[in-house]
């Protein structure tokens, strides 16, 4: 496969000594991933990872538009030589995935330019699958999650699947009653609220592995394909729960380093609330059975935390 000239222009390589091969899946139908292999002047091989996507929404902000296929955009990074987390016989060097994630989740997010304290949101759009997310800054985590995630994604779903009164009304009832009851700013951490931290945003088993950069150096636990924002640390556990997570050992080690938010008794329900977004996002992207998963979560949470008349 020939290397696109726009990519060749940004890399310190000789296109004549460079090849491109398909590598794995892009995660969504609009994206594809490739391995770029080039021979350097000293005779050694250097590897890069490239992800391309079709259409304007696939643009990697600030990284580039392909010249030879101008309707596609690209992102190029160092290549991660991956091996399965479960099947790898090579012990992982450095900190475990649980320890790395706990460190991320106990480090306060930076204060955005123009603000006086950390905020919930992100300085740029991030995508969860093919969904470009609304990351405008909010002081309140409950407001951010209700407006920028749940109400936002049900609007996307209606564009894809048509108006759905039951789904719309359930989301609205969840935002009005369940969200403030479970993750309200005056409720979490004994009314002290929570500090925004960087979250991965799409942390399921397909976005975690063991690997080394460029196939060199030690093999360690790595994650990739993030959908990041500044959020509640427990937000990452929603997508984990939806797709099976990383096991009891992972959870135990993680929570020893990053304890569950108070009230601990409501932890599982908060995770279910965060899982809801991903069911709605998958429904917006793929339709089908993901609707039933979202409806089931909302009806259960509304029974426990909502007004009886809203079911």
From TrEMBL:
Q: Which InterPro entries is this protein grouped with? A: Fructo-/Ketosamine-3-kinase, Kinase-like_dom_sf
Report the EC code(s) recorded for this entry.
2.7.1.172
The source's superkingdom equals Eukaryota
Q: What residue spans carry the region label Disordered?
A: 14-36
Residue ranges of coiled coil: none
Q: Which reaction does it catalyse?
A: N(6)-D-ribulosyl-L-lysyl-[protein] + ATP = N(6)-(3-O-phospho-D-ribulosyl)-L-lysyl-[protein] + ADP + H(+)
- PANTHER family documented for this protein: FRUCTOSAMINE 3 KINASE-RELATED PROTEIN, PROTEIN-RIBULOSAMINE 3-KINASE
Q: What is this protein called?
A: protein-ribulosamine 3-kinase
Which organism does this record belong to? Answer: Cryomyces antarcticus
